Amino acid sequence: MSPLVGIVANPVSASDIRRVVANASTLQVTDRANIILRVLSALRACGVENVLMMPEKSGIRRHITRAYERAANLKEDIFPQIHHVRQDITTTVQDTLKATAAMKEAGCKVIIVLGGDGTHRAVVSQCGDIPIAGISTGTNNAFPEHREPTITGLAVGLAAMGRVPESIAFEGNKRLDIKIGDRADDIAIVDVAVVTERFVGAKAIWKPENFRELFVTFSDPEVIGMSAIAGLLEPVSRRDSHGLMVQLTPPHEAKMRLNVPFAPGIIGAIGIGDVKHMMPGVPVKLDFPAGTIALDGERELAFDQTDDVTITLVKDAFRTVNVSAIMNYASKQGLMKLN
Amino acid sequence: MSNNPFPLPKEQLLEAYTKMKTIREFEERLHVEFAKGDIPGFVHLYAGEEASGTGIMMHLEDKDRIASTHRGHGHCIAKGVEVEGMMAEIYGKVTGSCRGKGGSMHIADLSKGMMGANGILGAGAPLICGAALASKYRGDGGVGITFFGDGASNQGTVLESMNLAAVWNLPVIFVVENNGYAESTSVDYAVAVDSYIDRAAGFGIPGVTVDGTDFFAVYEAAGEIIKRAREGGGPAFLECKMVRFFGHFEGDAQTYRAKGENELPQNLPFEGHESRRYLGR
Ligand SMILES: Cc1ncc(C[n+]2csc(CCOP(=O)(O)OP(=O)(O)O)c2C)c(N)n1
Ligand SMILES: [Mg+2]
User: Fold this and answer.
1) What total of structural domains would you count in chain B?
2) What is the pLDDT of residues B243-275, one digit of tens each?
3) pTM for the model
4) Domains of chain A
5) Burial (0-12, 13-18, 19+ Cβ within 10 Å), B22
6) Chain B residues 177-236 with a CB less than 8 Å from chain A
């Protein structure tokens, strides 16, 4: 049987306050659907016949249905068959969690994810061993790499069809585990930031005077968001076994101030304290009285003096599709040759 | 308050809480009274949507104008209109806010910047462009907020106003209170361009979506948007997502809704939250 590929596309990413406080972009629903159509034709070109999608009712499905109708009228046989996970639609992150779990259950070879860091984080919390391939459509996108989705689709197609050895096609990634006593247990895939606000509110974080601690799985001076702070101090690759911890202070009190693009369109002073390596498997106890923990850029968990908060870096926690390695392998081995 | 974990001081937290609680009680009482048959006309209840109106209105002064909807009681209370006058108005009494001539759908109090509930869907948007233009012309730093439902969002008047506000860079905030239904028509069916953020982007207006039942989410987002508009940053669009509690109007049998779809949250957005401990109630 031909392999099954899953697609989780979040129709509601990129709608937070950063469109107002900065000039963060809006990716229109029709564009999200067009991205999926490009991925679908790439999958089909590699021989993938069946795709399992997360259902939603924000316009993506409608747009894709129309495109399929047009393709049928024009007698173009360029798309795989689409199946939707059967589940209630809540228009919340629950949809992503449930659909991912169902894709795992259904035996998907790979799950393609459209969204920002938050959507990827939600998928990672449920996908277990199934490799994911990220396509960036959110606001804060440190995790998914930026490239034309057609290429991501091709790489996923080749990997799913078993044309590339797993050791080349997939790679391990780090994760941060957050525990608040036995009250909360959560994860982050790029960064954990501790801020002084004690309410979740509008979720995004954009006030440097309230930043206090930062933990990152990797840091790259080329990315946007909180992990950019670490990236400009000491780059840590996704493949390194360690992460980084950075103490943050209000900029006006800081010995060292760094100019950082910590959100799209916002470049501002960040106060820097100690910078340390974070070793995998060693829980770090949070030494801060009360605030909120932002996971991959969004405030999620409030805590106070009565809570024990620990953060642990986990190695090889989940797998991603290595698009660059696959496409280079495809070139060397002539995988795309038609005769 | 050094240990205040919230974005507003204790007195203001209490004020917001009181507003939301007043709205909820006002609406629940009307729900009971309407069934007795003494109230003329229709009433549309705002219960369950309190955090939206209150989270926004906490940033406003009397000089700031709002244009409300047919579901306007909550907006009135949050903007400071006297509840006795409102209730009398709903009963058509001469002691009402508009001398009993308006009823539920036309409560207004210009002294509070409340330009009126409105029986005509989408009619508030052009009005508020006028009010905002006046503020801009006078340079008084006032902003205008127009509320409309997901159904009303499709009215030409709303779309024209978005265009006008963008072209003239008016201090207008377009707030869609998306409660999933326009009478019995689901938002999924009736709104082409399924995302309000996309729609606003089509006019070059930044849009934000928040959980309209979370007071702090609304308060924080509205704060940034209103501050920006006051300082000349132009119009913005805010989508507050929520669930309509009661029927479209009182007496609606709601046969079109799925079972359990509108289960009444027992707590106000404020309750069951850390604020309870902080406020000592
Ligand atoms: C111009 C106009 N058309 C139709 C109506 C009849 N009508 C009253 S309320 C309503 C539905 C409004 O839905 P929505 O805007 O979503 O607000 P909600 O009732 O959900 O708060 C309709 C169609 C009206 N009052 N005005
Ligand atoms: Mg509605």
Assistant:
1) 1
2) 888 889 988 888 888 776 666 555 555 554 445
3) 0.86
4) 4-163 (3.40.50), 174-316 (2.60.200.30)
5) middle
6) 188, 193-195, 197-198, 201, 206-210, 214, 216-217, 219-221, 224-225, 228, 236
